[in-house]
Amino acid sequence: MVAGFFSRRPELLPAQRGSALVVGFSGGPDSAALLVALRACASRFGFSLRALHVDHRLDEGSGRRARAAQRIARELRVAFHLRVARPMEAGWSIEEWARRERYRLLAAAARCLPAAAVVTAHHRLDQAETVLLRILLGSGTAGLAAIRPVSHRLGPPLLRPLLDLEPGHLRRYVTEHGIRPVDDPTNLAPGPRRNFVRHRLLPFLAAGTPDPAALLTRVARAAQSAEPIVRRLLDDALEPRPGPACCEIGVRALTRLPATLWPAALARLHRLAGAPYPPTRAARRELRRQLERRRETGASVGCDCGDGWRWEQRRDRLRVLRRPPSAVDQRIELLEEPGTE
Questions:
Q1: Which of 74, 73, 71, 98 is nearest to 87 (CA)?
Q2: Structure confidence by residue, pLDDT tens digits, 243-271
Q3: Do residues 59 and 186 lie in contact, with contact meaning Cβ atoms separated by under 8 Å?
Q4: What is the pTM of this model?
Q5: Does residue 304 lie within any of the structural domains?
């Protein structure tokens, strides 16, 4: 499982024996399986482990789950660190905020130790769900490529060695090793989009399609192969200028593109700005309407494009940028508890 992942990618192994890997550890069956597997091959590959649990405080049971995660880490003799997410800012969805906080704290821990890499327990069903979510959001090839086994977007390498495995396999693996994982009830909440895909859309597809997860992961692999070519062609055409929480292109460069390429082009612009999602279809229509109005009347462009992001036009440049928080939001103090071991 994990040993095979590192054996196939020796360049990912820490340069110095004893270097740390930060493991995203919720205490659930997936991350528990990852921690057990990493613990089994740590001495072989020469790395030490740090299990990092992020308490988002989304419900009253989050503290109990943190203590359960600490218990499992103690049973496995792995150092445990606890971090508490900072309060959610206005304009963020719960899903977006929770994911951003989780990766922010994982990356911060990796830099602080310092660690050779961050490791998470994403599996085959996570990949299938992500592809479906990206389809629903109108993503281009970059979005459909979904979860990659190795990513460098955090700074330290982000590794996902379980992507080819089913969650049922991971739960059995944990049970066989005598570990009692904890289940997070927020994974059953009806609100988040991923939960809708997991509990309603995927089962609906499975009723008429044999193994839809296999088909969706095949889409991800095809997109991962095509995405570098599409990215290079779009960047050649648009000449984007990314900056902190923003990205800009020339208005003329966008309007010269065929309409069929607009979804991919705008998704690329959002990705370079750091937005987690591409613009919605309605937002793309509104942008096109405003650009056409600008051509006729010279009016400026400015409209929201979802999840706290906004398009603005200044002279001949179009920018997508993070909408600044309100003054009230800026007064909120950040919360972060020191880790425990």
A1: 98
A2: 988 999 999 999 999 988 998 899 899 98
A3: yes
A4: 0.79
A5: yes
